[in-house]
Amino acid sequence: MTKKLLNIHRQEFDNKKYESDSSYGSWRVIINSGGKGYANSFNDKVYGGRNESLEAALIFRDALRLQLSLIDKSDSKGKNAENVSGYSGVSRVDRIFSENGKEYHDYRWVARWTVTVDGKPVHKSKSCAIKKYGEDKAFRMAFKARKDGLKKYDKVVPKYFQTPERKEQKIWRYLDFTKFVSMLESKSLYFSPTVDMSDPFEGSFSKLNKDFRPLISKVLTEKDGHSGWNAKELRESVYLNCWHMNDYESAAMWELYGKSNETVCVQSTYGDYEQSLNDRADVGIVQYVDYKKDWIPDHDPYLAYLYKRKSYEHEREIRGLMRREDSLDFTEELPVDLNQLINKVYISPTAPQWFSELVKSVVNKYGFEFDVAQSSITDEPFF
């Protein structure tokens, strides 16, 4: 069997009852994972021929293998039906027991999480009695226990969250003067609600996902790691902080975001950005795909926010992502150490001298020490 046909088997059927003289059959995909078998067949008659049914089987196999590979390694951000808190890994439990002939209820908030120790998953939990601490305190204790428990170990980047190879990779954020001043005033990074983004495709899936999702959902359940694809609901709670990844300034980005002369660009590095976020947000490189024929990982709708259409490829985006339900005290403005985050501030290459002086004055007024300089991207050429 060739590698191309791994997990795919051919079944030939009696052709007498059909008008066509060509061979008739189906391709059957069979994958064993975690002691369970997952299978689906692709009939030549349904898909229009032997080659067409094989192509469908190959797409299905690759998509299913992808989903199955995520089951053990992803900390799903989807809500559990039994999780009345709405927060991942924290649930309210009612334990019923009998004592001296009487029935009692023991209400608790329970936190559960999984960490990786020496390359192996280790399951942890913390139970907080409501009778002892009260409803609100017991919940907050459980939530904090899970958060602190995860922080004790090296953070595992969610699968398919691609990050730069070098911590020193430069990243740039182009913004108008008022937003820059707001950043200095609040000493924070603003995460925009997805629903306010200009691209209506944010958080959506491809046509290929639309066509093959029913087949995947036939063989996967939520217990297997299938998320239920609540992508539209999730769109209301995902917030993004977007940067341009490049070793140099981008003339295209200045033209796109510097429509006014009163524009600045904040330059940082991936390492400084990640450290500033301090595990309070996920960070990943956006991948640009064809939304008609490319498959987007469909295990967790959160992953869709790391994909955009190829028409946005010039943005070379790296973004921070937060979900409202993942924090008790969620805010769109995430406090950060700007002196640690910002390496340099560039002023629009077409800005007048008075604006350059204003930017430097404002930076000093707020007590920051990072370097401020006007962009030289439009300097006069020498012949």
- Helical segment tally? 11
Q: Averaged pLDDT, please?
A: 83
Q: Could you name the ranges where pLDDT drops below 50 across 5 or more consecutive residues? A: 72-83
Report the structural category: alpha+beta
> What is the helix content?
25-40%
Please tell me how large the radius of gyration is.
26 Å
What is the N-to-C order of secondary-structure elements (H for helix, E for strand)?
EEEHHEEEHHEHEEHHEHEHEEEEEHEHE
Q: End-to-end distance, in Å?
A: 63 Å
Largest sheet: 8 strands, mixed
Task: Give the oligomer, counting copies of the same chain as homo and different chains as hetero.
Answer: single chain
Q: Structurally, how many domains make up the residues?
A: 3
SS strand fraction:
25-35%
Beta strands, count: 18
Describe the protein in words.
The chain has 383 residues and is an alpha+beta fold. The protein folds into three domains: 3-71; 90-151, no CATH class; 170-374, no CATH class. The chain has eleven helices and 18 strands. It has helices at 44-47, 50-71, 130-133, 135-151, 177-186, 207-219, 231-234, 251-257, 270-277, 338-341, 353-365; strands at 8-12, 25-33, 36-43, 90-99, 102-117, 120-129, 170-176, 188-190, 192-193, 238-245, 263-269, 282-285, 287-289, 307-309, 317-323, 333-335, 344-347, 371-374. Strands 7, 9, 10, 11, 12, 15, 17 and 18 form an eight-stranded mixed beta sheet that branches. Helix 11 links the parallel strand 17 (344-347) and strand 18. It is flat, with a radius of gyration of 26 Å. The model is unreliable at 72-83 (pLDDT under 50).
